[in-house]
Amino acid sequence: MNPVPEYDPLSFGETALRLRTYRQQILGSNLANADTPGFRAKDVNFAAALREQLEGQGYSGRVPLAVTSTGHMPSSTFRPGMPTQLFRTSMQPSMDGNTVDLDIERAHFAENVTKTEAQMRFLAGAFRGRITAMTPDGR
Amino acid sequence: MSLISSLHVASTALHAQSLRLNTVASNLANADSTVDTNGQPYKGKQVVFRTIPMEDQGADGVEVMSISDSTAPARRVYEPNHPKADIQGFVTYSNVNPVEEMVNMISASRSYQMNLEAMNSARELMQRSLDILGT
C-alpha cells in the first residue's frame, strides 16, 4: 500500500498555497508585534493542517461555542476552515511577556516564503502540463 | 487574501515604528529643554504598543495605544547664572536619557527594516502568484 495518498495536484496546490499564505500572515503578525508587550508568538502545525484540509475532516467534528451575550467569550481557537493557531514555546521570554524571538521568527519566515514560492512553481507546472496536453502537435 | 493582509500587518508595524522613531527624535531634540509647551521642563515621551486584530482571521497588526510621559526624575544641574535657575541655583532640565533614546532608536529602526522586508516578501509572493498561469 502506498503510504502517501495521491491527491489531485491542482486541489493539493490550492490547499497548500492557501495554508502557506495563511501561515505567512501569522508569521508576519509575529514580526509586526515583536515590540508589543505581552504578545505571544503564534504558528500553525502545517503538516497536520494540510492533512486535515485535504482529507476534508478535522473541523467538522468541532463545534464552536455560541455567543449570545456581550459577556460571553468566543471560543477563539475555533476558526472554521483555518487551522488552529498554536503558541510558540519560548526559550527566552522578555520581561514584558513578549515571546517573539526574532531569530526564530525570521528563520520560519524565510522558510515559509521559499516553500510558498516552490508551491507556486509546482502549481504552475501542473497547469503547464495540462496546457501542453491540450495543445495539438505538442507545441 | 492572506498575502494582502500580510501587507496590511506590515504596514501597521511600519506606522507604529515610525511613530516611535518620531518620539525618539523629539526626545533627543529636547534633551536640554528647560521649558516645554506647558512651561514645565520637557518630559520624555514613550510610545505604548498594542496588538490590534485585522479584518482577516489570524492576522494581528500593531498600533500605538498611547504616548505617555516618562516618569524618570528630571536632571538637575547647578548653574546659578542660568535664567531658569531656582533659589538654590539649580536648573531643572528634561528627564531624557540620551543613551536610552539611542538604544530605542536603533531598536525602532531595526524593527522598521524587518517589517519592510516582510512587506517586500509578501509583494514578491503576490507577483509570483501572477505567474502561475503565465507561460
Question: Can you offer a commentary on this structure?
Answer:
- The complex is a heterodimer of chains A (139) and B (135).
- Helix content of chain A is 47%, strand content 3%.
- Chain A has 3 helices and 2 strands.
- Chain A has helices at residues 9-32, 46-54, 102-134; strands at residues 42-43, 86-87.
- Chain A starts with 8 loop residues before the first helix and ends in a 5-residue tail after the last helix.
- Chain B has 2 helices and 4 strands; from the N terminus they run αββββα.
- Classes of the chains: A mainly alpha (139), B alpha+beta (135).
- At the A-B interface, α1 and α3 of A face α1, β1, β2 and α2 of B.
Topology:
The complex is a heterodimer of chains A (139) and B (135).
Chain A: H1 9-32, E1 42-43, H2 46-54, E2 86-87, H3 102-134
Antiparallel strand pairs in A: 1-2
Helix pairs in contact in A: 1-2, 1-3
Chain B: H1 2-29, E1 45-53, E2 60-69, E3 76-78, E4 90-92, H2 98-130
Antiparallel strand pairs in B: 1-2, 3-4
Helix pairs in contact in B: 1-2
